[in-house]
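Entry details:
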Amino acid sequence: MFANRNDAGRQLAKVLDTYKGQRPLILAIPRGAVPMGKVIADALEGDLDVVLVRKLTSPYSSEFALGSVDESGWMFVADYAAGSGGTPEYMEREKQRQMETLKARRAQYTPFRQPLDPKDRITIVIDDGLATGSTMIAALHATWAKQPSKLICAVPVAPPDTLEKIRPYCDELVCLSAPYNFQAVGQFYADFNQVSDEVVMETLRQAHKP
């Protein structure tokens, strides 16, 4: 059990301490992972930015992910998507809908600068926890395409089968807890309140003050 996202960030930073002083780039998946990312970036003397990806949701439930898409339009489709309403036509419509959201979020979160470039940098992609892993797979794929020197996935908690899906997409996988009784990420936090867009923007502003 983690007290909150800051607590999870501090615990992850201890495990990632070997990268302190190497100017790692911490890429957080909004919104929940951004405050956690600031804790890790500060502890490791690194830089913080966001990696923008979106779930491709089921036509029957906005909480159930059938896949994910990154800013380039690359799409990950889960092997169970077709049996859960994810026809090719539906997935294409859902992809376009989520890419509009990605464009809007990029303009909102980093309006006055380019995204930080992972090329030739140790890059750590983080989230506050994984369920299906679809979003993280898209985030790692998008980051790997930009040629980091090393790509690390770091999360506080995830089910074991999801970690196995994630492993091929990164050079190193760090997870503090992999319980078999996993139902939802929030069950492992005492405080798992939603993070607002305003908090994301303020955290990024603080991280990028001249």
User: Anything to note?
Assistant: Helices lie at 5-15, 33-44, 88-109, 134-144, 160-166, 197-207. The chain has a mean pLDDT of 94. Residues 109 and 201 are 5 Å apart (CA to CA). The longest strand covers residues 150-157.
